[in-house]
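Annotated sample (chain length 708).
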Amino acid sequence: MLRNILRFLTRRLFRFRSFNEAVLRAPGPVLLIPNHVSWLDWLFLYVCLDEDWKIVTSSTTAQTSWLHRRMMLNRLTFPVDTTSPYAVKRIAEYLRDGGRLVLFAEGRISLTGTLMKLYDGTGFLLHKTDATVITCYLRGANRFRFVRHAGWTKWFPEITAHFSERLSPSKLTGVSTMEARRRLTNWLYERMVRHQFDVEMERGPSTVLGSIAESARKRPKDVVLEDITLQQLSNRKLMIGVRVLARQWNRLFSGEPGEHVGVLLPNVNANPVVVLSLWMASKVPAILNFSSGAQTMLTCARLACLRRIITSRVFLEKARIDPDAFHHAGIELIYLEDVRARVRSGDKLRGAFEQLFNPTGGTMFSGSDTAVILFTSGSEGMPKGVELTQRNLIANIRQMLSVIDLEDCDRMFSALPLFHSFGLTVGVLLPLVRGIYTFLYPSPLHYRVVPAAVYDRACTLMLGTNTFLNGYARKAHPYDFRSLRLLFAGAEKLQETTANQWARRYGVRILEGYGATECGPVITVNTPLSPDYGTAGRFLPGIEHRLEPVEGVPEGGRLFVRGPNLMRGYLNPDANAHFKALDGWYDTGDIVSIDSNGFVTIQGRLKRFAKISGEMVSLTAVEEALAGAFPHYGLRCEVAILSRPDEEKGECLIAVANDARLDLGEIRAAIRAKGLPNLYVPREIRFLREIPKLGTGKVNHRELEKTV
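Output written by the structure step:
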């Protein structure tokens, strides 16, 4: 009767529902492992469980007050002394007798509202017993008042319980107990993360705009965007602006839903507002890379069949982009200054009214529709147009949110341009979906100003490429990054000198990831809970992978991936035909190795390997060995590596440096100091005043080959 009464109350107060509850009738031995985010998690489990289930509690904590004793020491609990080494053995004995237990493997209520580390005592139980596992995701319980994180809460949030199918861990033989408990604890953590990701994909909004609108509905007054003008946009102002602009686009564009519209704007508030408003107007933004030059932009515009490009007169003037180049190509430029002048007070009032009474409505897009067109960097050929769907983007965002412990008080600093997938998805869309603040800075190249801006805005999250992070580290004051909590690097290999400088001078650990525009972009990432320096981290949940052997590469292989974040396809017909032929897999073109713990090490692009005397030599590995190896010539001294045909050995290496004082003897010594063989030593060295770069800071090898 008590259980029925409590179930009725939870349904009325919290709209509580449970999913796959039938699995709880599974016979013992079985462990139910839920996430632990509030003081009343036990209540939402209790109303779903049969009488013989018991919840593991701490007898030590139970002695702190009479209330704790009543709640933690009764017929429904299995109290253990957590300070005793025999506690886990008692639980194991109960499971061997066929018991059914609820165990909060985190050992504490989450301080972040997300999944924290699991104690490896759970792995010990799985190793020493035949217990199966059911994971549970208590969705929404992190917003209940009785929590320990510092984020926003409410008295009666909607809470649901999602139970997984019954899981059986693999039996480990030939390993020590310590190693077995570590592996099984990691196995359990990965299953819990995957379960939470699957639930969010199933239960959450299917589009990015819908997810952002949902966050805005919950916290309308929170500031979520600010740019260099110090103009702040709250959730409410953002969504009103999106609605007002969407109505303007509907008046201007007569095309069918799904029309491609170009976006040519810097990192200011207007950029994400335009992208979101195009989604609300059922248009597809094609974001152009303004650093690639007018000719490349026109090529991309033709590829995407653009008839219109949204831009700004002020931006075109500052970026020295000639608008006549677009006019001559028959492309109409729509200036935001003119659009703003047409907005009337009635438009704003209508937008505010719609946002108040229909905060999550207003878009006709579905998850399968194309969300955005981005263009690859073109470092090894002409850029390809990549179609990412709404499902691709929201899946990649939720994959990252499931493994990174973001908090409500976090503040993102993003100087990466939105034409780069890293800057768009991780730098802007992810924090908007999560409902946290983002400061947009117009250029990542301002090495003195960016650190000062991070300090001034007290940002806790930051993104960058190795090139940009190296520049900031050289120019920043030691105190500029005092507030920084998480720093993620991607788009190019993180150099050891860069990582060491940040760690020693600023006390910040760089978390390296790996991805591709075609994958939304993130594929793997290091996290604070599971870092391994020198690798690109582990695969995100929901991403499958396989390696194909490469001749001359003894360890690792060519990486293929697939998952919900994988693109719809290319705009380029030939590239798209090749992609479709892979039956849902994406060929990254990268050679990687994966260790026993699942960490990925990038050896380099297959196109950036040279076959010398029958052996595959990574040009990227040579560049990494030379990075920062010549500090006596200044920190700006750089060396890039190219390959050329060679009649004797098949291919040979050529070094290209930007400092004429460098000689081959120094290069040879630096390579040998890294333990690389003679095959990795360039045959000659050439000099350029500046090594060509892409907008992301990576070396433009395609342009470099033309020049050299």
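Annotation: The longest strand covers residues 586-594.
Annotation: The mean pLDDT is 89.
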